[in-house]
## 1
Amino acid sequence: MTEKRENRDALIRLATALAEDVLRASESEILAEARENKIDVESVASARRTQFGSIAATIARRRLTEAKAAVAAQRRPATVTRLDLVAARRQLERLLAQDPETAQKLTMAARRGQSLSDDDVLDMLADLKELGFQVDEDEQG
Amino acid sequence: MPPGEPQPATLSPAEVAASIRALPAAAWYRLDRIAAYYARACPLEADDLRQEALDRALTGIRKCPIDVDVVRFLGEAMRSVASDSVKAQKRKATQAGGTGLSLVTLEDAEAINSIVSPSATPEAALIAEEEARRIRHAILDLFADDVVAQTIVEGDMEGMEAEEIRNLIGLDKTAYASSRRLIRRRIDKAFPEGWKS
């Protein structure tokens, strides 16, 4: 078995040596080789560039999805989501009442403290915490 | 690299992407040839090797040192993917056969999960090894009439450095380079569709 396994490794090593030859060849040698093999290098390059663009786009989309997920996770820290929602609304109203200047900067709906969804309340508490407000994660309803 | 030594400066994935976008046509042909050579020696197709190498470069899984040409960097990435796939196939076959343990790196594990067919069995691995043995001998037989070329190819298969091989057969650099060109041309002509056919 050991001897047999060495055969595949030997072929990888040979491929590495041949790849090195390709890398060391001059541009004119490479182009001459392509002509000899009846390969149109411009067509090859065009196809590969398209393929590369497709791979790059896929990776960019993947990164965007990951970034969105990371932002969403940051906006909803575990400390805030643990709050009882009733207590959260009460705390938001109190914090806004304590600081009208900040409240002014928030939306009309937020200032009223009414018709906000649970998510809105938790998001705003997270925002206030980022602004330096003391959000009490242990506050109970 | 020994622990504690500074890491070499590397290009960011965006810089690598920019370098790849700027590659001339001949460079893409070089990459095609390199992919074809590695595809002959591993379970993956040339297209898969090239795509996986580009993916690793763009995601930063493999980092390109700033002083390394990007074509060489991608060639090295393909070597790594090919080598990983062979290791992964061996490992899967071992697991399927339940005959032992092998040390597997993180890259091997990635290769197992992402690029190697899940159908690897001990039988398939044995067939692959037998095929590799057949190809190895067929390649050496190509140079039965040229002992210098045959020795160079054997040296390549053993992983010897160019200088070691040159010293072994007593060739100067020019003659050695000439022999290498002959070797590659003869292999390409003998196996136009790859060694697997």
Note: The interface with chain B takes residues 1, 4-5, 7-19, 21-23, 25, 27, 30-31, 34, 37, 39, 41-42, 44-45, 48-49, 51-52, 55-56, 59 of chain A (CB under 8 Å).
## 2
Amino acid sequence: MRIMTGPKTALPLLSALLFGAFVVSAPAAAQCRLCSTSETQRDEGATTGPIRIEVEARLDFDQLILLDSRGQGTARLNPDGSTVTTGSLGAMTGRTMVGSVTIRGEPGRLVRIDLPASIALYGRTGGNLTLTQLKSDLNTSPRLDSQGLLQFRFGGELQIEGDMEGDYRGDVPITVDYL
Amino acid sequence: MTGPPCHRSDNGTCGDLYMTKFAKIAAVAAAVLTTTPAFAAPVSVTGAPPAASARIVKPLTLTASGSLNFGTIVMNSVSSNQSVNLAANGTLTCGAQLVCAATGTVPTYNVAGTNGQVVSIIKNTSTLTGSNGGTLTLTPVGAATVTLTNSGAPGTDFAIGGSLVIGAATVDGLYTGTVNVQVDYN
């Protein structure tokens, strides 16, 4: 007869506990059909399809008039289309456009959408501007609708310093992932 | 288990053996636990990123020199509306029941702003008031746009002409007023 002590005794016990934990975690079959939830629920663990980003409209500040070539200023275009300028910039025109993006993916899925903190807009003839505070009109838990669509708009704030006349352009890298 | 007996007082082999087995069980448990899909794996995202754009421009400045002058126009038994057109190049043409000079003078405008930008020339009608009463409507004529060829000074020039309509009821006299021209980036 062998008397097991210490770790030798704990080994089978741990195995049994571990096995028991997995057995317990298995869902019991519903006994009450009226009480049971729908059997057609989507399997959260199923393979996920690709997400597609479609650009409906670019973020366009149109023309900004620099009243003082030696000054500084900011131009803010909010997701709701409202505009604010400060410093040496004149009022924005009525032709500004907020960025608009449509996400296509699996219907009903929660997604995480990340906008960059800032990006650079590069001039055709050199130089660059900084676009900061990119914000969207998404709620805190964005979800694709029943058609697998989610549309949102975004804006940002342009920082201008000194004589920077010219045309500027940059890409806004948006990352999307299922939660 | 067929190995040698092991007691608390043993050192070496037995302890190592159990530690190995415990580690294997822990590894299995970890493997099972990690298969629980708390979050789905990242999926591919396709589509081009949206762009952001802005055009920074200097404010436009518009200055005028000279005046729009049709000269003297003789009403020769005017019975219906007659047009007087003074082109931006100074050429003057009149209706058949009018007599006028071949040329007039036109104002020259200078617009300065950001090089390469297209500027719209906005022309609005204005009213000329006669010295003996009555009014005439002045309609400016000229180019619809101008492209700036430099940044700031010296700017780009353009001329503006005008047209009038003189009818049978037009009172003779000296008519004066202002030419209403504005510019804006296109």
Note: The longest strand of chain B covers residues 156-166.
## 3
Amino acid sequence: MKLAVFVSDFRNTVDTLDRLKPEKLGVILVGNGVYHAVIKENGAPSPVLKTPAAFYALSEDLETRGINTANVESNVKVISYGDIVDLIFNDYEKTAWL
Amino acid sequence: MGKLTIGCFSSLVGSMSLDFAVKLAGAALDKGHKVDFWVSGNGTMLSIKDQRSFKDYSSLEKPIKELIAKGLSITACEACAEARGYNKGITMEGFKRHSMDWYLASTFDADRVLHIGGE
């Protein structure tokens, strides 16, 4: 199964993500979840970004929080609402919301 | 083009999930997809008409009306709405009210489903 997981909060959801074993995993950071794309702890990126997955962050939610997209981790792709629609229909079969 | 069913239990007060869901519905409609939108629990506040719009406070009545005009099918859980005193007389025009069977049926023939739980 190809699964897209929306992470909407700035909590460590690593335990949940680690339990997911889809054929393909995409993590879409939205809302306060976009902080995972930029905030470092003790110099290291968010543990969420260590999950074996493709990462995306919603540009509008980054901008709303005053986050410059230039500061987003290199393994996170900044995307629009339209891009999310395309991911849902073209790249992933199922979705989950955390 | 496909059909996307979105279910959202979160209200606009205390959560931005409903705001996200409405914007996603708009993006999907703009790309030519069919969208069914279900609100349940506190999310049923979205169905109330004549909500006052404040500066710097998200308001969704206008975007919802625009999306309905574009073909959005949107339905509130009737029991959840009634339990909160949201009766049919104060429901926005074009906003349907049904039992949860409507949501279940919609998810069964949808190409994609996004379910957003409550806060």
Note: Chain B touches chain A at residues 2, 4, 16-17, 20, 23-24, 26-28, 30-31, 33, 111-117 (CB under 8 Å).
## 4
Amino acid sequence: MDVEAIAAFGRDSGIHGFMNTKWGWPTIESVHFIALSVLLGSVGLFDLRALGFAKAIPMPALHRLVPFGVAAFAVNVVTGAMFFVSAPDQYMFNPAFRLKFACMAVAGLNVIVFYSAFAKGMRGGEGVSASLPVKIVAAVSLGAWIGVMMFGRLITYFRPPYHWCFAC
Amino acid sequence: MDLLKAIQDSGLGVWIRESSWALFAALIVHTISMGFVVGTGLAIDARLLGVARGVPLAALRRLLAVAGWALPFVVLSGLVLVIGYPAKALTNPLFYAKLAALAVALALTWRMVREPPSWARLGALLSMPLWVLGVAGGRFLAYTHKILLVY
């Protein structure tokens, strides 16, 4: 990927200009954080239920919240792209950003595994425990999303060029 | 201001600012635990508004327990951030607005979950923007402070 081309797209599309208005950056950050909360409040709660919290709630019922998590993720792809094209050098050469994407890849693969193998005939009615494979999928999901948030938060810590990046 | 300066210049305050990891560890914990508190709050609001009706209303308190687990992490990590930069937060009116929004949202949600009242829908509609304000307020704190440190 060409940093200059991405930066040029950011400028030409007007996104860079908007982000650098007085409240542009914090506004989009707020949207990013709220959507992140919605993801935790849907997918994260579903994972916790699979792991044995709040067993009084049937898993298929809680699963009805997951589409909100998918929508929130879509919002964060858009808001995340707005950050990225506004300062591509700050992300492309940033180890935290790369690790964040690695965690998202794990979360993505995990979603594929869950829906191709375990979602149908999901166990977990009121008071019933999830099966062991579903528990493992839930633990991976929770771990991956926590990793996404942790490395997301660390992006400003590893702000290039002040920090070393082994791969960039 | 004297008190703020005393907190800022305390051993803990200095360590939080000068340690290579303390501030970011607090930020990470604050972000994730806050995400769980607000996410759970929004999920409860959604259920009270009629989403995912298969979730028994009586079980919503089990969901609020997730926020209850996350809340001590929010408070502790928030305290670390405030002790590191006391004037930055405590001289910003937005900080108090954020705290008030979250306190009201928590109290409202706690009350609605205990036994859903007749006004639960209204309460859910009210607490939703309060959760949003709590998150957005926190994010804007980094951009709206008048004072960073007291000299």
Note: DSSP finds seven helices and no strands in chain B.
